[in-house]
């Protein structure tokens, strides 16, 4: 029986699959090696005499086995400022406002510690994910459909594969093999999966490629989500998959994960496979690429920090939702701008490894 977003794998797992025949329960083991980074965002607003509102995404506010936020500090001259957690808990933002007559200045620093993340098929998590979170990550969003063309594509990819881990791997491999990474696009791309499906042309940047993976997973009943974050250090895998210096201003990057009962959330990153092909000039048969393709199904190299998993985000003080929040957002009487508009927001992000 085919599963869909309305009849997910978590409800009725096929007999004999990894979701039905679970391995012995083992307590999650905390990683032995952690690395701590100081992430500092500095903002200077052009032009004085205008009231302005600014929103900045903050690192993940919940501790995980791969990331912990240790604290924030900030200084500047906004008239008021606060850290706001959105009601569904999917993200936290720093929100501040400047009154007329002030040049806007702000610097906010966060300490984050990370550990590399590995999926182990022999281990089972102790507690299942909350039902409301799983339901949310089966639903469609503005940019990520979960039916129609996405479901048809999922059916073609899966054929007779029943095991949910094997299904997700088949989707991952199809996305890697059938998308193109375009480094000329701004930011992380638009994340518009609907447009990709309608045009039949797949790819873009990380929000687009990993969003496609999420869409297909959801359409066949596997909870999945994009995770929006920032590269903060060099990569041990490929130079193009990390920072070359402490400058992380353009280091935004979207990853993905999917959920299987008994195993929890499993990390993937098909976009970075395509990025390595595009930037490193690798051929599809290169042994290094074949190894990378295997690694990025189940592993996150944590030279990157997660900000949030929010979609269709309505920021404090705004009425209309935006597809996701990863860049700084500015609002003035002249209009709305994001961090891809350097003429509107002068900002830098630095990421430095520190010893505690």
Brief descriptors of the model:
356 residues, alpha+beta, Immunoglobulin-like, 2 domains, 5-stranded antiparallel β-sheet, 29% strand
Q: What is CATH's topology name of the largest domain? A: C8orf32 fold
Q: Can you tell me the CATH class of the largest domain?
A: Alpha Beta
Shape: globular
- Which CATH architecture of the largest domain? Roll
What is the alpha-carbon Rg in Å? 20 Å
The portion of residues forming beta strands comes to: 25-35%
Q: Describe the sheet with the most strands.
A: 5 strands, antiparallel
What is the count of structural domains?
2
Order of helices and strands: EEEEEEEHHHEHEHEEEHHEEEEE
Number of helices: 7
Secondary structure: helix percent: 10-25%
Low-confidence stretches: none
Number of strands: 17
> Widest sheet: strand order?
4-5-2-15-16
Average of the residue pLDDT scores: 90
In whole angstroms, the N-to-C terminal distance is: 53 Å
Structural class: alpha+beta
Overview of the structural elements:
- It is a single chain.
- The protein contains seven helices and 17 strands.
- The chain has 356 residues and is an alpha+beta fold.
- The chain folds into two domains: 125 residues, Immunoglobulin-like, CATH 2.60.40.2250; 180 residues, C8orf32 fold (Roll), CATH 3.10.620.
- A five-stranded antiparallel beta sheet has the order 4-5-2-15-16, with no helix packed on it.
- The protein is globular, with a radius of gyration of 20 Å.
């Amino acid at each position: 029986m085919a599963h869909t977003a309305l009849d997910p794998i978590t409800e009725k797992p096929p007999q004999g699959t990894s979701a039905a025949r679970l391995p012995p329960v083992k307590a999650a083991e905390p990683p032995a090696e952690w690395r701590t980074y100081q992430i500092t965002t500095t903002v200077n607003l052009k032009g004085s005499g205008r009231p302005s509102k600014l929103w900045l995404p903050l690192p993940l506010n919940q501790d995980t086995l791969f990331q912990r936020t240790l604290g924030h500090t900030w200084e500047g001259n906004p008239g008021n400022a606060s850290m706001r957690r959105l009601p569904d808990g999917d993200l936290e933002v720093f929100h501040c406002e400047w009154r007329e007559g002030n040049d806007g200045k702000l610097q906010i620093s966060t300490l984050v510690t990370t550990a590399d993340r590995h999926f182990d098929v022999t281990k089972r998590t102790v507690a299942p994910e909350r039902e409301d979170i799983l339901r949310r990550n089966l639903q469609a969003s503005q940019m990520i459909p979960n039916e129609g063309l996405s479901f048809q594509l999922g059916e073609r990819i899966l054929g007779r594969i029943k095991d949910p881990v094997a299904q997700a791997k088949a989707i991952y491999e199809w996305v890697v093999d059938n998308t193109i990474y375009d480094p000329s696009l701004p930011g992380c791309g638009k994340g518009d999966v609907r447009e990709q499906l309608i045009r039949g042309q797949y790819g873009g940047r990380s929000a687009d490629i990993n969003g496609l993976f999420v869409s297909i997973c959801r359409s066949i009943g596997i909870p999945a989500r994009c995770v929006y974050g920032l590269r903060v250090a060099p990569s041990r895998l490929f130079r193009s998959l990390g920072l070359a210096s402490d400058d992380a201003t353009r280091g935004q990057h979207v990853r993905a994960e999917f959920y299987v009962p008994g195993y929890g959330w499993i990390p993937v990153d098909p976009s970075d496979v395509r990025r390595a092909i595009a930037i490193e000039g690798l051929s599809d048969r290169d042994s290094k690429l074949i190894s990378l393709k295997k690694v990025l199904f189940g592993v996150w190299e944590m030279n990157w920090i997660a900000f949030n998993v929010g979609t269709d985000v309505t920021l404090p003080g705004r009425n209309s939702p935006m597809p996701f929040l990863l860049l700084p957002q500015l609002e003035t009487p002249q209009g709305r701008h994001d961090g891809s508009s350097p003429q509107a927001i002068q900002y830098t992000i630095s990421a430095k490894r520190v010893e505690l």
